[in-house]
Predict the structure of Methyltransferase type 11 domain-containing protein.
Amino acid sequence: MILVSSVCSFMSIKATRCSHKTPPSLPSTANQVSIKGHNEQQLCPTKFCCCGTGRRHFIEAAAATALLPLDPSTSTATDSMAMLNKVHPPRADWYEELYASVMNTGMKFYEEEIAGYKSHLFGILRGQAEKVLEIGIGTGPNLNYYATDTDVQVFGVDPNKKMEKYAQAAAVAAGLPLSNFKFEQAVGEAIPLSDASMDAVVGTLVLCSVKDVDMTLREVKRVLKPGGIYLFVEHVAAKDGTSLKFWQRVLDPLQQIVSDGCHLTRETGKNISEAGFSGVDLNMAFLSKASLVSPHVYGIARK
Ligand SMILES: C[S@@+](CC[C@H](N)C(=O)[O-])C[C@H]1O[C@@H](n2cnc3c(N)ncnc32)[C@H](O)[C@@H]1O
């Protein structure tokens, strides 16, 4: 994943976006610890191309279908587009296509190893959440874990529009009718949804890439209903003093340049713990096949 996205990023060039073309039980390796009074568990063996106006009309039209709980009287959609352009300026079409294609085919080993964690984590959504937002949905590798009910409505946001067809295919493969799936080109820092409109938010391998982790977490909290849950799986910095941390530090600047803004040394678990959720169940895992991105946090935060 890293190597290919590196190549992609090196080759990326600027393009205009404004063209007129049309916790459940855990895997057995879990060691449980308690932090901040919460039951925490630690696993440590160690374009659609459009102008702002067209886009706004598109979003409002979608909202009219009742899939998106957007309030057209607010500036949410406009803010979302402005933030998209600010934190994730347009890439060339071919670059976004290549990156999406690589994400669709290059993550198989990773997905195999993380499957047990995802299965336990996302399984709790089945039959419990009617409206689910996934931030940085990418090619939709999580949909088969939580979007299998025909009455769930899934809203996926991602700045890379080329992810959409893969995410749609993943939705169909999961058994979700496409009428219940909406992909929107947007960023986590400005989610084009109304306050308190989602039962759950899902995010995997995305807080490493967003420009502003805390702003994204504020947005996650904003769109969650009271009592709603945020489910996360994120790669994070290794423990201080380890050789992995040394290499993460050395390679982090290069990683940011070559992997579309992905950071290796973020302490995302800390951000989530301090984001003001009413409760956080935070777990750690170390994936043996994931090399530089082996250390992970995963869990549930409740609004
Ligand atoms: C490593 S991929 C992970 C995709 C998917 N969540 C998965 O688990 O395979 C990172 C994703 O985050 C998206 N992304 C990058 N910046 C973002 C932002 N500011 N807000 C939301 N998503 C973003 C990328 O386009 C990409 O789809």
Q: What stands out?
A: The pocket of S-adenosylmethionine is lined by residues 87-88, 103, 107, 135-138, 141, 158-160, 163, 187-189, 204-206, 209-211 (CB under 6 Å).
